[in-house]
């Protein structure tokens, strides 16, 4: 499988990890949801991210998921989340993933980092440990990590680490950060790919600011595919029409903590996974919340029909 | 002016504090925006909240704003944000506000509180300091305060403090919290008013869960007024139609930090305030962001026409 | 090996994990430092704690360390730190450790927990996952975890979870917490063992408050052994004399982040480990700091001679 | 009164604010404690710091304390803490303090700052608001503020802001930071004064690293005076002997939150203030803790006699 480069673009779906009601990995559903993501138009997949419940896996499970999805994806690039409290585990999973055929690895900063120099130093160490041949996606998600990566720190990392080829952008607010990064590139900084997360909740604006696509796991990846396509084609109004039709559910799915249960509920309702179960300590939706999500899905379907 | 009670409901608009380009308070704009809020159908106003840039005011300015808005509001209830690091300042502003005719005061927990007992103890102390006659609105906004108020802590406060008559609800996710509070009331707990914040971003669902209305400052308060009215009238589809039309801008305005500049830009574009300026350290919108907001406002207007 | 019970007491040394300069585990040094801890009078050992650089190990390394130390310790109880972001890894290592002959496991709360109910729920889940036969040490270390465990939450956990037999106490300030826990036990709550951490920096006072001993890794474990012995024998003045002689170094070793490098430097100077190296991202002492530590050790030796 | 400069050195005592049992300011005790600090050898005073319970004062009380202490100090330099959530209050109190004769103002960063650029921008704004003629002390206290100021950010502030003449150093661990700052000055950076806080718990080492003295409020300021004198005189052993004698109490007084009550208890036992009361929400010592402090004070007196 080819490796991730700075030219990567389009929609990389953050894959869920399906479980059965006992908490065991549901391998059939993992195959099916992989297929569905690709049928929906995904250009790549990202597994073992936060929303893939990565920290709940044992090391053996993680390795098995990597192998299973890469085999199933049939050559479509697969990025593997390898964030870990320690460098040994990060490097261990990262190199194993690359050996298995991953296109690259994704690394979020540990919550203890504070200053620009600490953040820069961390990524230098990570990239050195992984080696120059392992493409790295920098996940910038302050709401969850607690780490605020400044323009200066991000720029320094890009300068320091040639293997950082992509930013998974989910700073919030974060639109101006994309503009400033692209302006720095116009001024000579090395170009990297920017794929945006946060459930897609600012996708049209992010594309207008210079993002290359989306890397997120909203339960209707066809939204990301169509918005990215339309924005690239200059069909701004169309992009917003599609986006707005999905926005009520996007908003609902973006709720921290609860969001993954919403996403799995929707994927289960679509028949993409056999159970909406999360592995503990995660919990599923209560009856009232599930009904709320169902009503949003129904409204969404009607609105999509209206806009055609 | 009559005081706030547990029966309060409807829309309390979180008022901005208008400044001119030098950072001085623009009193004419304060009068005008007060008028516009009331014309839009507000049932009450809340001043000197976080989005009213309260911490940036001197003590004298705060007192003057309280007097000005209460006089202008002509009997409509005005809630005054009095959160402060120390009890002396909180009590000082609170009692002065009540003397001036405020309907009640709003208090967010200081960020140092962690355990249920600490949070409960803090509100007991605040209510004792203010005295039994000062109605208190508990602002529950973990994203900003960093303080997570559990159901148990909230219940204990309601039990302990008869003067806590309202919850300004902006926990996120927070829908189930409303349901659990209402369930506890069905089981015998004292009923309090629940008005919801977060820029209105979950207003239809919050009303369905048992909220009594909204207390937030979205730049188009007519959205809150119509959604609350429609939900109370059982016109759920209408409520969602209106809400969905505004949602792209609501989403944009809910960005932490940036949101107030977006709100002031929209209010300025509407002619409700003479300048979109924030007082330092706040900053206004850059050109690209302002254009983005303008496009959202234009789309919003078209969509509102479509739904009638 | 016998399992940990509520009656555990004395000194459990938090063991370092020795590395060579390349970052590889130095198994000979691990054997030697294990021996030295026991010769110094340790009643037990705790491995793979935060100061054992646990998060930097791979799963295989962790398992190997467990086996090695338990075998070497020859029947002395060994507690194994198993804190992990996810329950699967925690349970996996915990059960493997118990199978290998561990006396119990130690679990710190994940940093995302905030409310009493969340903390209580977390430990209920952990204890259920491990099963009733696995003794659990609750590590209460807010400075590092960010989780403040109130008296109420701690009491609820003790009530809920019979397998929680020990508190590793390192709240700061935390003396009154010991007194309140012992008062609650006098009022009928189940008694648990309390061993104190924080590098021993309040050990005489903790013993006077009702602690059962120390669980910490200060580089001179004979200090803990003698202070605990003296306090138990009613020799308060002696306990303080010994403690005070070590206090300048205790203070220096308690510096967050830096402390482990200080500890390893002292153990290396003593010949207990062959290298003071930390595994990355940890770093050793710079020359100036090392000299400072050396001077403190020299003063400490002289003061110990004076007090006899 | 003359203004603070980069050449400031010696001991600036962080003054308590004495209250009576009702929470009212005890002006007589404020006069007396001011006198005692100066008799103990203080080179300056710092009022309205965190340990002066500044956030609990009303604006009027703060102004009155400033005037009272400056008048009483009779020309000894007085630094005034003016940290506030908003710039208007900070500037208001700062300029008023300078008009009253303060030597300078002290500003800690608000907890919302994260990146180097944000911290640098904040101090640039503060210094611009205060004007070039107001000497500023930068308080670097991450344990309480949550803001980690890197060497780079600190250096940039020194370069940007000529009015920043002093660092109140209480980063922890922080010794190497002093060394790095002095090394940068050797390399050409503007020299500023460094006075150290943290209750004096690393004072001998800080002096050896290049600090100019102490700015902290330990209840026995004669400790700081003698340690600073001895270190400046090259009497290192004497400095450590004195320091070690006080260290058990220093350690006890450095407990976060509890520490101020310990300090006020000791000052009250010395007869320097008429009541150990803190203003709410602070609380005094319980009986057991008070007895513990008393025993430490007694041991300290005996040890001081031994060393002469």
Automatic annotation (TrEMBL), chains A, B, C, D:
CDD domains: DHDPS-like. One of its GO terms (molecular function) is N-acetylneuraminate lyase activity. Keywords: Lyase. SUPFAM superfamilies: Aldolase. Pfam families: DHDPS (PF00701). Its EC number is 4.1.3.3, 4.2.1.41, 4.3.3.7. InterPro entries: Aldolase_TIM, DapA-like. SMART domains: DHDPS. The keyword Lyase applies. It is an enzyme of class 4 (lyase). Belongs to the DapA family. This is Dihydrodipicolinate synthase family protein. It comes from Jannaschia ovalis.
